[in-house]
Amino acid sequence: METLLKYEFTILDFIQSDMTSPVMDKIMTVFTYLGSYGLIWILLAVLLLSSARTRKNGVIMAVSLIGCLLIGNIILKPLIGRIRPSDVNAAVDLLIKKPLDASFPSGHTMSSFAGAMCMMFYSIKYGIPAMILALIISFSRLYLYVHYPTDILAGAILGILIALLSKKIVETYLSRKNAMVIDRFARKKYK
Predict the structure, then answer these.
(1) Given Cys at both, which of 37, 48, 105, 114 links 64, Cβ 3.0 to 4.6 Å?
(2) pLDDT in tens, 149-177
């Protein structure tokens, strides 16, 4: 475990020493704020919910984001309680307000990959830019020194899995609901 942590700090320190600049500082801060509280994905879910044509995908995204909140922030972060890299190496000046919760998994990454996956369910045309946005938001968490690479990796995997599970749950619910409506209609028609 200590060897893994050493490699993670090697990656984080490489980003700090070789990739930072005043322009990148501003860009990464903006992208991190886009992912804060899943805000950009919540807005997309509301947008999808507002049209009958995209409503099912909006429901899937909303269920996914709620799943990310429950699994990531309410269950895993307190259970695992991983200290953030900025707490271990206080020599790095944070460009954002210090997060107060645990590091593992990355909530920004979970919600971003869940949201992007839901956009992929709707349309590859919109899903690819959403995935690129998810990648940039996730990288911003490394750049800003508030997550380890494994926090990001776990967040991405969990976000995608939660989106897939949410899609299955919503589609199962809708197919059962449709079957009940058809059954009721058939009973009325043939009585």
Answers:
(1) 114
(2) 999 999 999 999 999 999 999 998 887 76
Distances (CA, A) of 19 to 6, 11, 134, 152: 19, 11, 19, 18
Which burial class, exposed, middle or buried, applies to 23 when counting CB atoms under 10 A from its CB (0-12, 13-18, 19+)?
A: exposed
CB 89 within 8 A of CB 46: no
Closest CA to 15 of 106, 154, 152, 145: 145
Residue 157 identity (one-letter amino acid):
I
Supply the pTM of this predicted model. 0.88
CA dist 112 and 12 (Å) reads 21
The second-level CATH assignment, the architecture, of 14-189 is Orthogonal Bundle (1.10)
Identify which of 181, 175, 157 has the alpha carbon closest to the alpha carbon of residue 72. Answer: 157
